[in-house]
Amino acid sequence: MAEINAAWHGIMTDRKRHYGMFLTPLRKYDPKEYGKYLQYDRRIILSNLREDIKGEPEAVILYEQELADIGASLKKLVAKRGWLRSAPPFKP
Protein backbone atom coordinates (compact mmCIF):
# COMPACT_ATOMS: atom_id res chain seq x y z
CA MET A 1 0.00 0.00 0.00
CA ALA A 2 2.90 2.35 0.70
CA GLU A 3 4.12 1.93 -2.88
CA ILE A 4 0.68 2.79 -4.26
CA ASN A 5 0.47 5.88 -2.06
CA ALA A 6 3.94 6.95 -3.17
CA ALA A 7 2.95 6.49 -6.82
CA TRP A 8 -0.24 8.53 -6.35
CA HIS A 9 1.71 11.23 -4.56
CA GLY A 10 4.19 11.38 -7.45
CA ILE A 11 1.38 11.61 -10.01
CA MET A 12 -0.33 14.37 -8.05
CA THR A 13 2.91 16.30 -7.64
CA ASP A 14 3.65 16.05 -11.37
CA ARG A 15 0.09 17.09 -12.24
CA LYS A 16 0.29 20.16 -10.01
CA ARG A 17 3.64 21.10 -11.54
CA HIS A 18 2.29 20.67 -15.09
CA TYR A 19 -0.77 22.78 -14.31
CA GLY A 20 1.50 25.47 -12.91
CA MET A 21 3.72 25.37 -16.00
CA PHE A 22 0.66 25.97 -18.16
CA LEU A 23 -1.19 28.46 -15.99
CA THR A 24 1.72 30.72 -15.00
CA PRO A 25 2.29 32.17 -18.50
CA LEU A 26 -1.47 32.24 -19.11
CA ARG A 27 -1.99 34.35 -16.02
CA LYS A 28 0.87 36.62 -17.03
CA TYR A 29 -0.61 37.45 -20.45
CA ASP A 30 -4.34 37.14 -19.77
CA PRO A 31 -5.65 39.58 -17.16
CA LYS A 32 -9.08 37.89 -17.06
CA GLU A 33 -7.47 34.53 -16.25
CA TYR A 34 -5.37 36.19 -13.58
CA GLY A 35 -8.49 37.72 -12.04
CA LYS A 36 -10.19 34.30 -11.98
CA TYR A 37 -7.08 32.84 -10.36
CA LEU A 38 -7.20 35.42 -7.57
CA GLN A 39 -10.89 34.64 -6.93
CA TYR A 40 -10.47 30.84 -7.08
CA ASP A 41 -10.61 28.95 -3.83
CA ARG A 42 -7.72 26.57 -3.13
CA ARG A 43 -10.21 23.78 -2.37
CA ILE A 44 -11.74 24.08 -5.84
CA ILE A 45 -8.30 23.85 -7.45
CA LEU A 46 -7.44 20.74 -5.43
CA SER A 47 -10.83 19.20 -6.22
CA ASN A 48 -10.24 19.75 -9.95
CA LEU A 49 -6.79 18.20 -9.69
CA ARG A 50 -8.19 15.16 -7.90
CA GLU A 51 -10.81 14.68 -10.61
CA ASP A 52 -8.14 14.83 -13.32
CA ILE A 53 -5.88 12.42 -11.44
CA LYS A 54 -8.69 9.86 -11.18
CA GLY A 55 -8.45 9.36 -14.94
CA GLU A 56 -4.73 8.61 -14.89
CA PRO A 57 -4.94 4.86 -14.06
CA GLU A 58 -7.66 4.38 -16.67
CA ALA A 59 -5.47 6.05 -19.27
CA VAL A 60 -2.50 3.87 -18.34
CA ILE A 61 -4.62 0.72 -18.66
CA LEU A 62 -5.92 1.84 -22.06
CA TYR A 63 -2.40 2.66 -23.31
CA GLU A 64 -1.09 -0.71 -22.11
CA GLN A 65 -3.94 -2.51 -23.89
CA GLU A 66 -3.32 -0.51 -27.07
CA LEU A 67 0.39 -1.37 -26.99
CA ALA A 68 -0.41 -5.05 -26.42
CA ASP A 69 -2.79 -5.00 -29.39
CA ILE A 70 -0.18 -3.31 -31.59
CA GLY A 71 2.44 -5.86 -30.51
CA ALA A 72 0.12 -8.77 -31.32
CA SER A 73 -0.72 -7.28 -34.71
CA LEU A 74 2.97 -6.79 -35.51
CA LYS A 75 3.77 -10.39 -34.52
CA LYS A 76 1.01 -11.67 -36.82
CA LEU A 77 2.20 -9.48 -39.68
CA VAL A 78 5.83 -10.56 -39.28
CA ALA A 79 4.81 -14.22 -39.15
CA LYS A 80 2.49 -13.86 -42.15
CA ARG A 81 5.09 -12.11 -44.30
CA GLY A 82 7.93 -14.32 -43.13
CA TRP A 83 10.19 -11.36 -42.54
CA LEU A 84 12.20 -13.00 -39.78
CA ARG A 85 12.89 -16.18 -41.77
CA SER A 86 14.80 -14.25 -44.40
CA ALA A 87 16.81 -12.14 -41.94
CA PRO A 88 20.26 -13.28 -40.86
CA PRO A 89 20.59 -14.25 -37.19
CA PHE A 90 21.29 -11.37 -34.84
CA LYS A 91 24.77 -11.34 -33.34
CA PRO A 92 25.56 -8.61 -30.80
Helical coverage, percent range: over 70%
Largest sheet composition: none
Task: Extract low-pLDDT stretches.
Answer: none
H and E string: HHHH
Counted up, domains total 1
> Mean of residue pLDDT?
78
Distance between the first and last residues' Cα: 41 Å
Strand percentage: under 5%
The structural class is: mainly alpha
Work out the radius of gyration: 23 Å
Count of individual helical segments:
4
Principal-axis shape: elongated
Per DSSP E runs of 2 or more residues, the count of β-strands stands at: 0
Give a verbal description of the structure.
This protein is an all-alpha fold and about 90 residues long. It has one domain. The chain contains four helices and no strands. Helix 1 crosses helix 3. The protein is elongated, with a radius of gyration of 23 Å. The two termini are about 40 Å apart.
Q: How do the helices and strands line up, and which of them pair or pack?
A:
Blueprint: H1 2-29, H2 31-39, H3 42-81, H4 83-86
Task: Give the gist of this structure.
With 92 residues, the protein is mainly alpha-helical. The protein is 88% helix and 0% strand.
Structural key phrases:
mainly alpha; elongated
